[in-house]
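Format is sequence with structure; example below:
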Amino acid sequence: MKATRILLFFTTHHGMMLHQIDLKSVFLNGLIKEEFYVEQPLGFESFIYLNHVFKLNKALYGSKQAPQAWYEKLSSFLSENGFIRGKVDITIFHKDYGNQFIIIQIYADDIILVLLMNLCEDFSKLMQVKFEMSVMEELKFILGLQIKQANKGVYIHQTKYMKELLKKFKMDKAKHMKTPMHPTTVLGLDDESKKVDKKTYRGMIGSLLYLTTSRLNIMFNVCLC
């Protein structure tokens, strides 16, 4: 998240624009090094070897190995084509083109780019040599953040995330309050009331902590909870 915010500040300062690309079936591109087996999925059973399992050659979407295998595949490809990986943040890659440059940030299957428009076509051709990708477009949504890039600056909000959050915890019909908890409130044990579901409570706090990315004004209340 810090790297994404820094890129937003950087591009705004230089009057540039962030772009994003969508690579199709990215996690299926990663090769796994360790032995990995899965049960025969429905519709793909072998009638000859009913009691056998499949050994995977490539990462499977949803497996723990998939993001790392994909990162190693993309990282190797970018390094082979002259991109330098960041030393502090290894999700950042950059390459100089004379007085121009390309900066790439990778997060799982999300890829955001900082580059001038005249380099878009060259980079697209490079990626299409190895991967199947859709059209490069202006960055509008990344990691739950909605981004609006305008001439006067970059606007970040989490409206979509917030609405989904309210529905998830059945709070979308609740009464609106500017300050849901007074700053002088003291939290204490209440043995008489109904027990709070720990899993739900932790889920709420974790979700709200992520919301503080764009809503610093709720930081006090969330941290108090």
